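Listing 4. Sequential folding, example run.
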Amino acid sequence: MSILINGAVVEGPEDPRISLLDFLREQQGLTGSKKGCNQGACGACTVLADGERILSCLALAAQYEGQEITTIEGLGSADNLHSLQQAFLEHDGFQCGYCTPGQICSAVGMAAELKRGVPSHVTQALGSSIAMTRDEVRERMSGNLCRCGAHNGIVDAILETFAEVAQ
């Protein structure tokens, strides 16, 4: 069994019971994704599976055989930040930084959802184009908690980075 993680093919776990989060952190050394609640309630462990956001603490690594997993380490590097990572810096979208990797991965997945026309609970008009409003972003990011209170900076960073999605 193999999994594509951040562009590299890796051998899957020996134990089929290991969560994707533990596999990434403990066996692959990718510690950007955080173990917050370990119950799927905080979003700190959010990664992308074939471009869709998932809670890696609730997923078994074995479920993702042959799929592409993208963690925060796969979105950018210290020398080449993803545009959303740069926007988080510019808009003070983090304080302690614990939730930041999950917030960023979730926002990248959320932008793709909007582009595909996937509605949320607050989407006003169903159709092919959904406006990326503050309320829409807040609703879609509600599964990612920030206990420091950096929500306004997070929303500002997302709105600036993905403004073209709202067009």
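-- end of first protein; second protein begins --
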Amino acid sequence: MNDRLAALRLFSRVARRGSFTAAGRELGIPQPTVSRIIASLEREIGTALFVRTTRAVAPTEAGLEFLQRLEPILAALEEAEHAVRGTGELRGLLRVGLSSSLASRVVAPALPAFTARHPGLRVELATSDVRQDLVGEGVDVALRFGSLPDSTAIARRLATFPRLAAAAPRYLASAPPLTCPADLAAHDVIVGPSLAGQAWSFRHDGKAVSVRVEGRVVTNSNEVSIAAAVAGLGIVSASRLAMASEFAAGSLVPVLTEWDMGTVDLSAVFPAQAIAKPAARAFADFLAAHLADEHPSP
């Protein structure tokens, strides 16, 4: 029974990672052993579960159907095991998908408190500044800012932060006056990933204003856009959370503070399956509480 269950769990990881080697690395199994176990599983089932090429491993049509039926069962079994242990301790691997900026600024500093509660849990931070395919990259929970167009996922809002405009004091010292959004036309603007190709929107006393900005610096990295602002290259817009360290250090200061730029949600996103992993849910609970403590609403 244990060998069969281990083989099914291994199949799930191979299917989600698209690689025998990556799945084996996650589970501590050599690649030749992974290949042998999957081949044995295919013989028992009586059909090929994967198409193997020199560059990747992809589920066959039968493999995809098997995966869709199997993963809710595996998740329910993990939930049952977690419940009957009764200790609250989590085990195994938790793979978190998130941006490099969020990983370094928020999650990594908070992670020791989470792992101390669950010493049997291994956490892998899969960082990328582009939105990840949860199933294709084997992500158990992803952290995402802003809108969530992925209808195949289940989301939970963890926190909401105001969006702000900010600049370095040294930039403002020699820049033109900045008292209203229209003044941005005379300023250098840094356009980051969350506002690329969009107008900056403001509200004040019930009045809505949109300003089309032409970025002197345009980047697909939130971290780079903030670093460019600190370097004095212009005005940046991001969530208060993203710029909290710079505000505390004084390397950036908010501008146009009488104008409301709206808010940005931070959400935990789970693959669409019957039951999310207990570790993924626990991590989302932990992070929501941590953010409420460290970054309370004003």
